[in-house]
């Protein structure tokens, strides 16, 4: 997924940040090349471009890969990052920053954000139980499954996990969500009106 934010003559884009259970491959490379093309195009337009890519170093897959390699998760993450940067160099990807979730400034920002949201009373701790695919690093619903397996990892056994999780109190945000939907509807109707559709 690419996220793009544009404002005045500044252009910011980020690729997904990749899990570090292995070195990035051609599939990741495809996304990086597309992002690089966009970044280069906006640089040519004279805009101030910030192109971010990086690694998500937290997760069960990373922990498992480090355990199998018999090194600490940080040492494993360091090794993958070095290899990933080589891959990006070989594709001539001109990114501005390779962010790692173990970077000090990243951790500080996440903690500040979390504290702020928690202070607003939007975060609560509760039990969560579900079917987990370690390949996707996410919970699946029954309707996601094909013949009782994850469609992307049909040979990987699914786990039934119960864990304490932090939740975001969406229920408190109903009004804002409703306003968002109303706004989209308004724009949609406005477009129809403008083009006489
Ligand atoms: Zn999966």
Q: Could you characterize the architecture of this molecule?
A:
The structure is a single chain. The model has no long low-confidence stretch (mean pLDDT 87). With 197 residues, the protein is an alpha/beta fold. The protein is 42% helix and 26% strand. It has helices at 26-44, 60-68, 73-90, 104-119, 174-194, and strands spanning 3-7, 10-19, 48-56, 97-100, 123-133, 138-140, 159-168. A hairpin with a 2-residue loop joins strand 1 and strand 2. Helix 2 (60-68) packs across helix 3 (73-90). It is built from five helices and seven strands, in the order ββαβααβαβββα. The chain starts with a strand and ends with a helix. The strands form two sheets. Strands 1-2-3-4 form a four-stranded mixed β-sheet, covered by helices on one side. A three-stranded antiparallel β-sheet has the order 6-5-7, covered by helices on one side. The radius of gyration is 21 Å and the shape is globular. It has two domains: 1-102, Rossmann fold (3-Layer(aba) Sandwich), CATH 3.40.50.620; 121-169, Methionyl-trna Synthetase, domain 2. Zinc ion is lined by residues 133, 135-136, 150, 152-153.
């Amino acid at each position: 997924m690419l996220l793009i934010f544009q404002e005045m003559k500044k252009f910011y884009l980020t690729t997904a940040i990749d899990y570090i259970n292995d070195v990035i491959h051609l599939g990741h490379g495809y996304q990086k090349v597309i992002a690089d093309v966009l970044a280069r195009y906006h640089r040519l337009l004279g805009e101030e471009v910030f192109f971010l890519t990086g690694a998500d170093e937290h997760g069960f897959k990373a922990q498992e890969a480090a355990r199998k390699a018999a090194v600490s998760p940080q040492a494993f993450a360091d090794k993958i990052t070095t290899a990933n940067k080589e891959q990006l160099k070989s594709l001539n990807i001109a990114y501005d920053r390779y962010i790692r979730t173990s970077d000090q400034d990243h951790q500080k920002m996440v903690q500040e954000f979390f504290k702020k949201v928690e202070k607003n009373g939007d975060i609560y701790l509760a039990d969560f139980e579900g079917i987990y695919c370690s390949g996707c690093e996410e919970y699946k619903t029954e309707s996601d499954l094909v013949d009782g397996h994850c469609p992307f990892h049909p040979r990987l056994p699914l786990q039934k996990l119960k864990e304490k999780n932090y939740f975001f109190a969406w229920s408190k945000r109903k009004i804002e969500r409703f306003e968002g939907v109303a706004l989209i509807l308004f724009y949609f109707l406005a477009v129809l009106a403008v083009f006489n559709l």
